[in-house]
Amino acid sequence: MFDDNDDDPVTLTVNKSYANKYQNWREKEEKQKLIARYGSDIEDSSDDESEDDNAEDWTDDVEKEFLRCYSILKKRDPKIYDSNTQFFNTPESSSANDSHETNKRKKEKKMTLKDAEIQYAFAEAMHKDDDHNDKHIQTTGKKSIIEEQEEIKK
């Protein structure tokens, strides 16, 4: 059994199906840890960014205006200190900004169950706090010193 005279080489084989299952299990475990630590917004974080990947708003005219404005800044032209000077005044850029703003409104953050629960708990806490203050006023017949000072500040 443990003879050094054995000439047969020892081979180690890996069960590939078990290795794949184990790898998938570890990935799911890591994902659960991330969700527990940072919340469920991990997967949607790349969608929430408002980067312009296709550079739809960056046209040749906008680039020319930008370069013109940049050169004025580099030269330290006195026009940059004049509040009436407009550096970007093409109607195309304003319409592009309008379309960009409407896209932002459409891409508002989705309300998740977690967000709804937090909002509900906050509203309940505020409601209970208001009820507590009202009961305090009713039982004592007068407000506390802190409450009176807060009213004076208002």
From TrEMBL:
GO biological processes: endonucleolytic cleavage in ITS1 to separate SSU-rRNA from 5.8S rRNA and LSU-rRNA from tricistronic rRNA transcript (SSU-rRNA, 5.8S rRNA, LSU-rRNA)
Domain of life, source organism: Eukaryota
Polar residues bias: start-end ranges: 82-97
Region Disordered: start-end pairs: 36-58, 82-111, 126-154
Biased composition (Acidic residues): 41-58
Compositional bias segments (type: Basic and acidic residues): 126-137
Residues making up the signal peptide according to the UniProt record: none
Cellular component, GO annotation: 90S preribosome; nucleolus
Protein name in UniProt: Uncharacterized protein
Species whose genome carries this gene: Rotaria socialis
Lineage: Eukaryota, Metazoa, Spiralia, Gnathifera, Rotifera
